[in-house]
């Protein structure tokens, strides 16, 4: 049964095929892209996890080369995205967010791997929000995943819990943390954090409507977060304070009274749209952008936004407390574009990765790339992935 039989096939590079995968262990019908598979299943499995607002299609440029190097390469539309079906599509107030929990995301990965006839993953590679899933795969199942590569979103470590408060009351620090959202709103130019905006009722409707404007919105969003936009000059932030966070562009720290479409439009108003399209054609030509626009026009953004709703609500991530103090034990490499602000979203996190990963293989900064590093500089990303694999 193909739940998406009415949809046209994706325009994939030679060597990549697509199909739906079902398992009785999951309610999902996984839409996967694959390259390099063999009937004997004798090639090492590489699993590629996309971010937001993306789909498995974002890995199209690296998959053939990784397959040519001898790997079985699989990318799939994660829960809430693209052509993967079976997830909870109920509205904002009715959806069961437990199905979008962080541990359930890891479960989705393991169920798929088993369905493909594998019990071991050579490397799990995650970009953007996919790096969150990848890092948790590495943290929770080092026996199953041999290595991990994170792109654009560093691992900040496992949860910390109140320690020794039963014996030393001075350890129970009841100081209230500053309200970062109030502080951002009280800036001379009032701002707000995009992750908490993405967690609101209005975000999906504002980003999706009107549908005929979706293509232009995505063109602007992809452009502004790429190396093509001259406004990207990332720098480490000194603290989690409003004045420091406000150094980031509008696509991360938004104008207080704007939705994401409006925030993107404010910066795109200063751009020459013909020049933008010309520059973007190098890595995201119109035909490729059309794939994203058509998919999100069909599905909307709420499935992906549900991830943010879980991540911004501490009560919905408490299952991770069972891993408090645990490090990522398997080899871990971090990759980012030189023009990617994502590396500095949380001050000090990337600098501390060597402390929260037992076998940290370093930070590789790729020049002439922004946030969409595997699309902007696919050859360099392939080189880094294969470099790690050769070292195992």
Report mean pLDDT, rounded to a whole number: 96
Helix content: 25-40%
The helix-and-strand class reads alpha/beta
What is Rg? 20 Å
What gap, in angstroms, lies between the N and C termini? Answer: 39 Å
- The side-by-side strand order for the widest beta sheet comes to 1-2-4-3-5-6-9-10
**H/E order of the elements?**
EEEHEHEHEHEHHHHEHHHHEHEHH
Q: β content, as a range?
A: 5-15%
The largest sheet, given as strand count, sense and whether it forms a barrel, is: 8 strands, mixed
Report the total helices: 15
Number of strands: 10
Apparent shape: globular
Low-pLDDT windows of residues: none
Your description of this structure?
With 392 residues, this protein is α/β, with parallel strands linked by helices. It has helices at residues 63-68, 102-115, 129-140, 180-185, 194-198, 203-208, 214-224, 242-245, 260-268, 273-280, 286-299, 302-311, 353-356, 373-376, 378-391, and strands at residues 17-22, 29-35, 45-49, 72-76, 123-127, 148-151, 191-193, 253-255, 332-337, 360-366. The strands form 2 sheets. It has an 8-stranded mixed β-sheet with strand order 1-2-4-3-5-6-9-10, sandwiched between helices. The longest helix has 14 residues, at 102-115. The chain starts with 16 loop residues before the first strand and ends with a helix. The model has no long low-confidence stretch (mean pLDDT 96).
């Amino acid at each position: 049964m193909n739940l998406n039989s009415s949809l046209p096939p994706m325009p994939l590079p030679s060597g990549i095929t697509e199909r739906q995968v079902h398992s009785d262990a999951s309610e999902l019908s996984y839409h996967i892209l694959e390259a390099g598979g063999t009937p004997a299943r004798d090639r090492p499995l590489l699993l590629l996890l996309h971010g937001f607002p993306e789909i498995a299609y974002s890995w199209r440029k690296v998959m053939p080369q990784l397959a040519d190097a001898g790997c079985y390469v699989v990318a799939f539309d994660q829960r809430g995205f693209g052509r993967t079906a079976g997830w909870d599509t109920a509205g904002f107030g009715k959806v069961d967010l437990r199905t979008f929990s962080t541990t359930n995301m890891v479960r989705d990965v393991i169920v798929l791997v088993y369905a493909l006839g594998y019990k071991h993953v050579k490397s799990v590679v995650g970009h953007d929000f996919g790096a969150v899933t990848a890092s948790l795969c590495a943290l929770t199942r080092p026996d199953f995943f041999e290595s991990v590569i994170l792109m654009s979103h560093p691992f900040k470590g496992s949860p910390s819990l109140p320690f020794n408060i039963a014996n030393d009351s001075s350890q129970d620090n009841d100081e209230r943390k500053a309200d970062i959202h109030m502080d951002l709103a009280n800036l001379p130019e009032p701002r707000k954090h995009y992750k908490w905006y993405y967690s609101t009722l209005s975000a999906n409707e504002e980003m999706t409507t009107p549908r005929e404007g979706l293509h232009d919105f995505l063109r602007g969003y992809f452009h502004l977060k790429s190396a093509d936009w001259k406004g990207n000059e990332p720098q480490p932030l000194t603290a989690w304070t409003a004045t420091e966070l406000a150094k980031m562009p509008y696509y991360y720290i938004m104008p207080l009274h704007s939705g994401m479409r409006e925030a993107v439009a404010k910066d795109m108003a200063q751009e020459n749209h013909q020049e933008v399209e010309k520059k973007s054609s190098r890595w995201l030509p119109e035909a490729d952008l059309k794939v994203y626009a058509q998919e999100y026009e069909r599905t909307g953004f709420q499935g992906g936004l549900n991830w943010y709703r879980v991540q911004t609500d501490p009560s919905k991530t408490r299952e991770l407390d069972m891993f408090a103090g645990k490090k990522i034990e398997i080899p871990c490499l971090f990759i980012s574009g030189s023009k990617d602000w994502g590396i500095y979203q949380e001050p000090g996190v990337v600098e501390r990765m060597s402390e929260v990963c037992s076998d940290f293989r370093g930070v590789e900064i790729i020049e002439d790339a922004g946030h969409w590093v595997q699309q902007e500089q696919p050859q360099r990303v392939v080189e880094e992935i294969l470099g790690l694999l050769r070292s195992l």
